[in-house]
């Protein structure tokens, strides 16, 4: 597994570590780019105020639209697929500093963060080149406080590890618009429908039906985030829902919003305004 060294956008102190224990990296990426599986020695908060990305870890696949960020612990294998043009700002946290955090145990696994207006502004302000050391420390502390109460699993699609169940999951994810019958899937992966149903429940903590719904909603999030012209009616039909209300109800159950509310919020997400140059090394 590739271990990537942290590319430094701006060192807050010359010793490459700020008093707050954070490195700041700014980078824009084009739609369609993939960052292959790798890991870092530091923990990361990856935020794209513009664009949607997909982060895959051994535990599952996270859809990260503009009002979300993703926390990646140090040493965790992960890859990124950029589903739209991305304006990415990443905070890399020194592990020795992070371990002194009161709630460090909650930062040892990956999760998606719902980015509140306050967290959004704190992240953007960190990239202001005029920051003093004191302001940087305060902004990092504010971001950490918001981080601890912002976890959101709505866009997470857990991936099973058992080989047959994993193959079945990938068949669904490769074609989330299909109407996947568990009996047919079970035959394709060489097991019974009863066994496959039990495996999905054990491996993902979701029933097969709920897991498929999560995968379809994730596909809808991806489409809404990358295609401004798609209608809710088109999406409902393509994803196999009998009606727009049925699709909207399923979408709200997973995300807490209707598809229309989600699309409106994604379009109106704030752009980055922090004063910084763009580094030329890959994050």
From TrEMBL:
Any Pfam family from its record, for instance, is AraC_binding
According to the UniProt record, where is the region Disordered?
259-283
Domain of life of the organism encoding this protein: Bacteria
Record's compositionally biased regions (Polar residues):
259-277
HTH araC/xylS-type domain boundaries: 166-265
Question: Which InterPro entries does the protein's record reference?
Answer: AraC-bd (IPR003313), Homeodomain-like_sf (IPR009057), HTH_AraC (IPR018060), HTH_AraC-typ_CS (IPR018062), RmlC-like_jellyroll (IPR014710), RmlC_Cupin_sf (IPR011051)
What keywords are annotated for this sequence in UniProt?
A: DNA-binding, Transcription, Transcription regulation
Q: Which SMART domains match?
A: HTH_ARAC
Can you name this protein?
A: AraC-like DNA-binding protein
* Organism listed in the record: Bradyrhizobium japonicum
């Amino acid at each position: 597994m590739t271990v990537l060294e942290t590319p430094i956008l701006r060192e807050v102190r010359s010793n490459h570590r700020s008093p707050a224990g954070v490195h700041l990296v700014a980078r824009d990426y084009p739609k369609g780019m993939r960052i292959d599986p790798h890991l870092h020695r530091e923990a990361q908060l990856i935020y794209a105020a513009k664009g949607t990305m997909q982060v895959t870890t051994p535990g599952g696949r996270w859809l990260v639209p503009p009002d979300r960020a993703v926390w990646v612990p140090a040493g965790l294998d992960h890859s990124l697929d950029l589903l739209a043009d991305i304006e990415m700002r990443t905070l890399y946290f020194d592990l020795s500093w992070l371990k002194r955090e009161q709630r460090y145990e909650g930062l040892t696994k990956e999760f998606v963060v719902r980015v509140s207006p306050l967290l959004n502004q704190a992240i953007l302000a960190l990239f202001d080149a005029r920051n003093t050391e004191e302001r940087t420390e305060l902004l990092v502390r504010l971001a950490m406080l918001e981080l601890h109460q912002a976890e959101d699993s709505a866009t997470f699609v857990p991936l099973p590890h058992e080989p047959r169940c994993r193959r079945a999951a990938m068949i669904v994810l490769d074609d989330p618009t299909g109407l996947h019958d568990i009996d047919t899937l079970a035959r394709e992966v060489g097991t019974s429908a009863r066994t496959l149903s039990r495996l999905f429940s054990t491996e993902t903590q979701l029933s097969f039906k709920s897991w498929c719904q999560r995968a379809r909603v994730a596909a809808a999030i991806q489409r809404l985030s990358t295609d401004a012209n798609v209608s809710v009616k088109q999406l409902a039909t393509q994803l196999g829902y009998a009606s727009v209300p049925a699709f909207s109800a399923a979408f709200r159950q997973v995300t807490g919003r209707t598809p229309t509310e989600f699309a409106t919020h994604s379009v109106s997400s704030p752009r980055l305004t922090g004063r910084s140059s763009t580094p030329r090394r890959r994050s």
